[in-house]
Design brief:
Elements (H helix, E strand, L loop, with lengths): L1 H21 L2 E8 L4 E4 L2 E5 L2 E5 L2 E8 L6 E7 L5 E6 L8 E10 L3 E9 L4 E17 L1 H11 L13 E13 L7 E9 L17 E9 L5 E10 L6
Parallel strand pairs: 1-7
Antiparallel strand pairs: 1-4, 2-3, 2-5, 5-6, 8-13, 9-12, 9-14, 10-11, 10-12, 10-13
């Protein structure tokens, strides 16, 4: 009987010694909601919330749950450190939420811009109500720089401005969406009320003294970031 009590103690000590020798460390994977399948380095190992030991290094973690987007990440695990992942799963039917709803004053020969980050498979909506016709468009940072050179008359209008989504009028909505294969990155939304519009075959009719423009921003991206809001500038001679 005494030997039977000793053997489990010996096995436990050996197991602890093996873990110390291999340098394994603790990895805890949580999700909201729970019950997501956990795949570590391509192998299905259980469901969240899940805890295990792994070797130090970079590990691929994938969480899947019916009705939710697949969560994927690369996690660096260091020896003798507990690593915890808290994943917020995103519903495939997530609704649009309000980010901002403000009225701004945009004068003749001036513009306003918003800088934001949008993630894969997500969309953002810019709803605009203005007292006169305006041009609204989303674009990449390098094309926004080109637009500023046109506005500041540092460069002549050439092949045109690269836009992603664009609308024109007094009451319009610009919807910018990304595919699942895209990466999270920075974009610009621009409200144009400048003379470069003559090159775009339209003429803004916002009053010269300026006008109150309502801009409403909604998105279904839980990690959406509005980095700059309603920043304004003017052509030489224009007034903010």
């Amino acid at each position: 009987m005494r030997n039977k009590r000793i053997i489990p103690g010996i096995l436990g000590a050996c197991l602890i010694a093996m873990i110390i020798m291999c340098g394994c460390t603790n990895l805890q994977i949580n999700s909201d909601p729970t019950g997501a399948d956990v795949i570590i380095d391509g192998e299905m190992v259980g469901q969240t919330n899940y805890e295990t030991t792994v070797n130090p290094g970079i590990h691929s973690i994938v969480l899947t749950k019916s009705g939710y987007e697949t969560y994927q990440t690369q996690v660096p695990v260091r020896e003798d450190e507990n690593t915890v992942i808290n994943a917020q799963l995103v519903s495939l039917t997530s609704e649009m939420r309000l980010i901002s709803e403000k009225t701004i004053n945009v004068r003749k020969n001036c513009y306003a811009y918003y800088r934001y980050k949008l993630g894969p498979g997500k969309k953002v909506s810019f709803q605009v109500i203005a007292p006169g016709d305006m041009y609204g468009f989303t674009t990449f940072p390098n094309d926004f720089d080109t637009y500023l050179r046109f506005v500041n008359k540092q460069e002549q209008w050439g092949s045109g401005l690269g836009t992603i989504y664009a609308q024109w009028g007094r009451n319009f909505e610009v919807i910018h969406s990304l595919g699942l294969g895209d990466t999270r990155r920075t974009f610009y939304f621009v409200l144009d009320n400048t003379q470069i519009s003559n090159y775009l075959t339209y003429s803004p009719t916002l009053p010269s003294e300026g006008g109150s423009v309502l801009v409403r921003i909604t998105t279904n991206d839980p990690q959406f970031t509005l980095e700059a809001e309603s920043q304004q500038g003017c052509m030489p001679g224009g007034t903010t």
